[in-house]
Write a structure and sequence with these properties.
The chain has 285 residues and is of the alpha/beta class. The chain is 26% helix and 20% strand. The protein has helices at 25-32, 62-67, 70-74, 164-173, 177-200, 216-223, 247-250, 272-281; strands spanning 9-11, 16-17, 50-55, 77-79, 89-93, 124-130, 134-141, 147-154, 207-214, 245-246, 259-262. β7 (134-141) and β8 (147-154) form a beta hairpin. α4 packs across α5 (177-200). The termini are far apart.
Amino acid sequence: MKDTADNFVYLISCTRVKPMEGETLGELMRRSGSEVAEPCGGNGTCGKCRVKIRGVVTDCSERERLLLSDEEIEAGIRLACITPTKRGMVVSRADVEPQHMRILSGEECAAADNDGSKDEKVLFSIAVDIGTTTIVAYLVNKSCGAVIAVSSAMNPQVTFGADVISRIGYASEREDGLAVLQSRAVDAVNRLIFNLQRRASVLEDEITEVVVYANTTMEHLFAGVSPASIGRAPFTPQYNEFPTLAAAHMNLALSPETVVRLLPNISGFVGGDITAGIIYTGMTK
C-alpha cells in the first residue's frame, strides 16, 4: 500500500509514525521516542497519560469518561494507554506530569589531592542508586572515598508504572516486559556513566567497580531476573544476594571485566537501598 499522508499518526514535536496493528497511542509514542508517562502501568486507571488528538478522534471509552471531564473529552483529550491508534491522527501531549520536578543528588565533593603522587594511577568506583522514580550515579575516588562527580536522571521505567507493583506486573505479564524494563534501566545507567566520565575526565579503564543499590524489585529488574515472586505471597525474591557480575554481562559501557555488585536484599520489600543505609549509618554497631 502506498504511503500517503492519511496512513500516518502525526506526533507534535516529533515526526509522523506509521501505526502497527492493534497498537495503542502510548505504545506508538514509546516506539517513536516521544513517550508519555503511564504511572498505572498502562491499565487506564490513573488518568495521567493524557494526549490531545486532532484530525481523526476516537470515541471516548467508558473508562475515560470516569477520568476526564466533559470539557476535556469535547476538546479531544484521551488516555494514550488505552486509545487505539488511527491513521490520520494528530497527537500532542496533554499529560499532567509535574513540570518542576528536580532530582536531589547531594552536593559534589571536591576532588581530593593525590598526595603529590602524580604518577600513581587513580582508580574509581561508580555507586548507582536506582530509585523507582530517579537514578543517581556517583563517581568515587577509591583511594580516599571522595565523591568526584554526580549525575542523575529520571528512571525511564516510570513509563511502565509509577510503583514496583505495576512494574512487577509489566515484567511478568508481557512476553518482552522484563527485557524492556532491564534495557531501559541499563541504558539510563550507561548515560549517567558517560556523563561522569566526561565531567571528571576519567577513562573507561580507570573505573574498576560498579556498586548498585535499589529496592528488591529494582535490583531484580536491573539484573534481568523476574520479580514475579515478589508480587505474590509469600513475597520471596529470587535473590537476596546476587552473584558478582561483570560489565560485559550487564551491557554496561565500561571495560568488559569491570566488576558489578548489587547490594544484598533483606527481603522482598526491604532491599539493597536499606542495606546501604544500614551500612552507612553504622546501625549494625
